[in-house]
Amino acid sequence: KEILEKYHDLFTLKWEGVIGNMCVPSQAEWEQLLTNCSAFLFYGMERFMSHVLLNWLVAMNTPKCRLVILLDLVRSQQSYQRITSSDIHKSCLHTALERPTETAMLLSLTGVGSVIATQWYTTLEENAERLEVLFENLLSFGKTAGQTVHVLQ
């Protein structure tokens, strides 16, 4: 929340979304956020695709969304229990489609211009550091997504 407030004025006055544990977005809210934005940020627990229904995502059309940043793949005991009970009801193929590379491909097929995503499990603190670097380079310095990813590497 502090990082969003720090860069609020540099980017837009129209930040929109769900912050913290206010509520769990419905599939319709996820779709509205993804289809009506120019950039989408997910900073959360487990895999992004574990929060969005696959059949909803593949049916979306997101030509306005030029950039998706997925700072996910954070695990806690509670999130692990949730994801484990959810994965029981999915096929191996479906679970495989929730991996980072497959998620980026699916988002690209819906029309997203660029995807920046974590590739392995991490901590909330490490993702906060990545978010700070992303916003500093994208918003303060005006670097491209590619230049910014290079800085992260």
UniProtKB/TrEMBL annotation:
GO biological processes: axoneme assembly; cilium movement involved in cell motility
Name of the protein in question: CFA46 protein
Species of the source: Eulacestoma nigropectus
